[in-house]
Description:
- The structure holds two protein chains of two kinds.
- Chain A is an alpha+beta fold.
- Chain A is built from eight helices and twelve strands.
- In chain A, strands 3-2-1-5-8 form a five-stranded mixed β-sheet.
- In chain A, strand 1 (117-123) and strand 2 (128-133) form a beta hairpin.
- Among the domains of chain B are: 48-174, Cytochrome c-like domain (Cytochrome Bc1 Complex, Chain D, domain 2), CATH 1.10.760; 274-361, Cytochrome c-like domain (Cytochrome Bc1 Complex, Chain D, domain 2, Orthogonal Bundle).
- Chain B contains 18 helices and no strands.
- The radius of gyration of chain B is 26 Å and the shape is globular.
- The A-B interface holds A 248, 250-253, 255-257, 264, 267-269, 309, 311-315 and B 287, 289, 292, 294-295, 298-299, 303-305, 307-308, 335-336, 338-339, 341-343.
Amino acid sequence: MRDRKRFLRIARAAPACVLLAGCEGVQSTLAPTGPQAQHVAQLFWVMVAGSGAIVLVVALLTAIALFAPPRRRAFLAGDTVVLAGGLVFPVVTLSALLAYGLVMVGAGPGKMAASPVRIEVAGERWWWRVVYRDDAGSAVESANELRIPLGRAVEIELTSDNVIHSFWAPKLAGKLDMIPGRKTALTLSAEKAGVSRGQCAEYCGGAHALMAFDVVAMPQNEYDEWRLREFQPAREPTTQETREGKALFLSHGCGACHTIRGTPAAGRLGPDLTHVGGRISIGAAILATNEASIARWITHNQDIKPGNLMPAFDIFSGSELLALSRYLASLR
Amino acid sequence: MAFVGKSLLAGVGVALVLALAVLFFAWSGLYNVAASQPHWALTRWFLDFGLRRSVETHSASITPPTLEDKNLVILGAGHFDGGCAPCHGAPGGHNDPIVDRMLPAPPELNRAASNWSTEQLFWIVKHGLKFTGMPAWVAQQRDDEVWAVVAFLRALPQMSASQYRLFAIGDPDARPNDGAEIARNGMTMEALTRCVRCHRGDAQPKSALVPRLAGQSQAYVERALRDFASGSRPSGIMEPIAVALDAAAITALSEYYARAADPAPSATPIAPNADQIARGKEIATKGVAESGVPPCLVCHGDTRAPSFPKLDGQYAPYIVGQIEIWKRGLRKKSGYGAIMGTIASRLTDAQARDVAAYFASVAAPTAERPERPIPPPRRGGPRAR
């Protein structure tokens, strides 16, 4: 009982840690790693500087009005000052900032190189369905993790067949809504290798706050290797235990909602698990991927992510649960 | 003013004296609580009057469902024979002299149905009656089961003894005919734990509200009995039976049913509707993506784990009833129940009926052939020495 309480406390604290980590940069719009996010950051700083300067000038004028001798402050009542400060200055400044903002916002996608990498992302409740296609048109699915090559333009096609979500990877680009019945597209690119984090930015129901994803930017050669592996079906289990885990997966109904390519499991309601062990996190970037977290997710996912659409499967013996989670963790 | 004050004082004094007298009478122990002494006529009248008024008042807001359903009557008869007849007696039965010495003696129920309205019968069966020995229904959430008993009670006055035995015992002529068997085991036909009363052995149950067990997975039957015994699957009908079974009996029973083949073709009591079956098959094989319903057959088909039940050939009304119970959250206390509870809540009532019609239309399950020989059951439980 105490263990369970402790586990729940940790489970609740985990997302908070991730949020705090956002301040350190993994999900910070102020620490951009790509040109699109740099534009956003630059726009932000220019706006902060501009509005800061205006606040200072207004404060100075207010101080003059209050404290300066009448002779000195008389000029404030003159028609010229009122017209210049009350009409000309705001019109000119705001128009300039607007023009600058429009240029900055529009600057990204148009200038990107041709033949971008294409990734499709569909907003689900409450996770991200990620589809990669090869040139021959065959597609593989992943979930809650985007892998992108460094320095290339990546065009992300955003859809939703349920409610409105919003795709936001703050270190790479601005937000873009995913609207049912429509396709929207976002182009981004990464200049620094590493993992950053994204989050659904439009309230989409119960577990919205726990709908996040990882973006892994990797050098082109590593990306190519990864992509080759990703297009392969799931690796066959090699130990007695993982073989048992696979049999449990298939006989206990997991395949009704999850696909593992290369096995009869072909469900589409939940995330594709073909290479789940190779992803950084599970549960839509809620828990780091390992045997223990997979086991906890299977039996206690409703405590970890309340309201998520997977029923808790608290039906396995200890050894069965270990076999099942070892098998899933082995799917790299 | 003085007169009113004095009268009030006198009234209070008299009331106080009366109360003390009553208290003194109780304290003295002169009142005889013996069941061997009948009530005075006045006491009797007063208790009957109070009981009837209480039942009438408390049952005033109940609306009964349709009870003109033979399935309900047969299910109710099966429970009545094990749960009610020991005190209330049954058509063609005898009066138990021990029960006759209860005060009040439990009434014969073929008259009770005409004494009480349908709503009042429901209220009495569900809540029981204080100071009479009438217990409340074991699973208070299961109004559906209580209504089955009420449907039976309404049908009881027109029921012959042989028809009653057919409904309640499954066979009008069943009786142990061997003196040695009776001497050793007693009149086992009346045992509460006789499953065949409702489920039959290797044939279809008579009521479409009762699950067919012949050919069912052994692990599933075991799990179901344990869930009933622990109360995690609430049922006023099955809980008392499951509690009476020890671990060895549960294993032996589930082995028996797993291997019992059903020779009878699956006959659905409702007219099968081809469109409905086709819609149900679509859900069973593909699920309903929009509402997050996974395909039923991944868990209930041929590749399922033994702890998941077979649904092939089950009666549609039984399946619909269970989905309804899941939707009401009554079966979600166990690990397995939590899974199905989530899925059932995503099915509309129409989809539940479609899927039930499909499973009812599938050929009956064949007997389970265990791969390894099952060890012979231990002779006698810990109680048999």
